[in-house]
Amino acid sequence: MIITTTPSVDGAKVVKYLGVITGEAILGANIFRDMFAAVRDIVGGRSAAYERELGKAREIALAELEDWADEVGANAVIGVNIDYESFGQTNGMMMVSATGTAVIIDRP
């Protein structure tokens, strides 16, 4: 499955558009990581724990996007956009959403 942020696949022709599809992942942040991240924010530096969680969430969202594309009969997803949001009472939840257009392409 080809998944790309570009509006087309180089050297391939889109023969059918199957619609917009989305994959999402929502993860809760661990309270101990939250406290450690808050300390890192004060003293500076990167929060490896959050970076790992965001990476996992992105992988899950893209895997869901690919599963959905496969379900509708697509062999590619074009125009993919990945969006990150935090929400919840104390912004303790993270959501990654991957959206794109499922298509059938003809590859030479």
Describe it for me?
It is a single chain. Strands 1-3-4-2 form a four-stranded mixed beta sheet. 34% of the residues lie in helices and 41% in strands. It has helices at 31-43, 48-71, and strands at 2-3, 13-28, 76-87, 93-106. It is of the alpha+beta class. The chain is elongated, with a radius of gyration of 17 Å.
Ordered list of secondary-structure elements with their pairings:
Elements: E1 2-3, E2 13-28, H1 31-43, H2 48-71, E3 76-87, E4 93-106
Parallel strand pairs: 1-3
Antiparallel strand pairs: 2-4, 3-4
Mean pLDDT: 84
Strand content: 35-45%
Give the topology string: H per helix, E per strand: EEHHEE
Count of DSSP strands: 4
Spatial ordering of strands, largest sheet: 1-3-4-2
Q: What would the principal axes of the Cα set say about the shape?
A: elongated
Integer-rounded radius of gyration: 17 Å
In helices, the fraction of residues equals 25-40%
Instruction: State the low-pLDDT regions, or none.
Output: none
What characteristics describe this protein?
single chain; 108 residues; alpha+beta; 4 strands; elongated
Quick recap:
It contains two helices and four strands; from the N terminus they run E-E-H-H-E-E. The chain is of the alpha+beta class and 108 residues long.
